[in-house]
Amino acid sequence: MTYLLGFVIAVAIGLTGVGAGTLTTPLLILAVGVSAPVAVGTALIFGAVVKIITAPVYMARRQVDWRTLGFMLLGGVPGVLIGVFLLSGLEGEVITGIIGATIVVVAIFNLLRPKVHHRHDRSKMLALVCLAIGTEVGFSSAGAGALGALALMRMTNLAAAAVVGTDLVFGLIVSLIGGGVNAAMGTLDSAVLLQLLTGGVPGAILGGYLAGRVPSQQLRAGLSGAMALLGASLFYRGFF
Question: What is the value of pTM for the model shown?
Answer without folding.
Answer: 0.85
